[in-house]
Design a protein that fits this description.
Layout: H1 3-6, H2 9-14, E1 22-25, E2 29-33, E3 43-47, H3 59-80, E4 84-88, E5 102-107, H4 128-157
Antiparallel strand pairs: 1-2, 2-3, 3-5, 4-5
Length: 158
Amino acid sequence: MNPQQADCLGCRLAHRIVESHIVFENEWVACLLDIDPFSEGHVLILPKQHFVDWTDLDECTMQKVCEAVTSLSHALNKLYKPDGITICQNGGAFNDLTHFHMHVIPRFHHDGFTWSDPLHEHGAANRLAATRTKVAEVLNDIAVNTKKETENDQSEQR
């Protein structure tokens, strides 16, 4: 483990350096119970490699995280028979662990979990068409740039 990883609580948890309640692990991820669970069975999925945000994950790690989400969802549904499962990830300034982690939370009617309204009116609902155009344009630019990078990489390999 490099010095950056040694300073990272998420890395230490994923590598069993800090005590935790791991329910599943493989060479890519460690899945452990949240120490402040929203409900019984609330699990965190942490990659064993240090990443901070979803967009930092390589394709293989992203796939392994998604596979863990699916397996855990099946297990939690079988064990707790919840009314639903919430899967969420907080990035950027909202990532309090500063190591990528995905929450898998069994949910029940009237459990108090809320998706609250914004504190300040922002009017985004009035700009859906304009927002759609902006997002679609950026996605298109990203796809074009990714294609160019792939083509450049392939020509350099020749």
